[in-house]
Amino acid sequence: MRERNLFPNTASFPQSMTQSYLSHLECSGCGKKYSHDQIHTFCSVCQSPLLAQYDLMRARQNVDREEITRRKRGMWRWREFLPVLHEENQVFLGEGDTPLLSLPRLEKELGLSHLYVKDESSNPTGSFKARGLAAAISKAKELGVEKVIIPTAGNAGGAMAAYAARAGLKAHIFMPKDTPFANIEESRMAGAEVILVDGLISDAAGMAGEKARAEGWFDVSTFKEPYRVEGKKVMGYELAEAFAWQLPDVIIYPTGGGTGLVGMWKAFAELEALGWLEKTKRPRMVSVQADGCAPVVKAFQKGAIFCDFWTNAKTIASGLRVPKSFADSLILQDIYDSEGTALAVSDEEILDSQKHLARMEGIFAAPEGAATLAALKELVQEGWIQSEERIVLFNTGSGLKYLDYKN
Amino acid sequence: MSNNILYIEDNPDNMMLVQRALESRGYHLLKAMTGLSGVEAAEREDVDLILLDINLPDIDGYEVARRLRKSSKTSLMHTPIIAITANALKGDAEKALDAGCDVYMSKPINIRELWARVEAFVPMP
Lengths: 407, 125
Description:
Distance between the termini of chain B: 9 Å
Radius of gyration of chain B: 13 Å
Radius of gyration of chain A: 20 Å
Number of domains of chain B: 1
Structural class of chain B: alpha/beta
Number of helices of chain B: 5
CATH topology of chain B: Rossmann fold
Oligomer: heterodimer
CATH topology of the largest domain in chain A: Rossmann fold
Distance between the termini of chain A: 38 Å
CATH class of chain B: Alpha Beta
CATH architecture of the largest domain in chain A: 3-Layer(aba) Sandwich
């Protein structure tokens, strides 16, 4: 499905241009600038993640937020702030514009007034990973990449396989051997080569990185290329729009690689630069991890700017089994800047909350999503959250993809 | 403190990257390309911290760490060792820490993190 050209009067742009305001890539560590018309991974100088930068001052003069709200639904209606230049390279499977659902029964039970869940399970391939992989695969296609490789704890593999198939790219996927069966099967079904690794996502990342270097395949690992975070950031744009160009008070987000958390914080900065927010008060960002793998929580509690590698990582929430994110310093910085917090919940609490969310509100969340409800209960009990605050939980995927551990 | 940091690493690209990063902060980098020569260098030189790759052409980094901790040069029992590896086998971090390393870092090496980790043990000159 391809959207019509919404800028028929801008004669200076060729018909296929999407009017992305992408200007360059910039290292999040040392600030070194890179051209966006070449393939890049991470900074060659300091080896930190690269982030896409846009000419927001020019966009501020030319782009009307209300016009975007009238466009056909989907992630690409925010195309001015996405990195793909040519419309024909947008690989679209229906990602984005997931529902922001109120949770009236849980709200009442927990003594809250404004509780919502951003339910990402309605994305293609059943998880929020679709957003990041839609952006990354689209940009890879635009840059002429033919083969892509990814290490994944689950859902990213299925998403990459689907988008790569639609883009006509060959996908290679490294997954821990205990990855949920649904992720393995959906990847194979979409024609990807799947290699099962006896280890964790970090082990899969090591193997995928070696293979990428040896074969010259493009590594789409979290934050080792600059564009997945761009797809994820649209969650922040959608929230701003849904809250009438204000932002919620608290966002509770399950954190593995942290792309969504970093992406939303980036979106809020961009929205501020665009002058689109009615109030510039940003949310407090809450990072939720499992107590069997909580590197961000441990670092946050110490006030550290990097995470220690988490040893013997173990949790049923496979998306949270990330011993150390490549973007750990960005995640921590955003939590500190937001005056947020980080906390860990047990697998037992995750399973209880998964059941609770399903029975009270009819949402069968992924364990990672259920972890946010478990965290909310703790934060309410501690008094960290006030009853009148607007709180958004993130359900990152469908519980239907995690039936293995129920057996 | 001599500000000497020994890097045991067989990959010249990684060696050069780390050398540039640490020398820009005033540290002096000693280099060893194999595990055995790394152990010898640590025993011979005055070393404040050791950066240790795991995949080495002779003995692996785990064995290097074990030998350093058992060395007759007793100061090596307490010299900080940071394992830096792109290994892809299950439990690398756990094995590195068990072998006597103090910190585990995975490649690619984030230079800002490397500075922070090194400075935690050896203040910037």
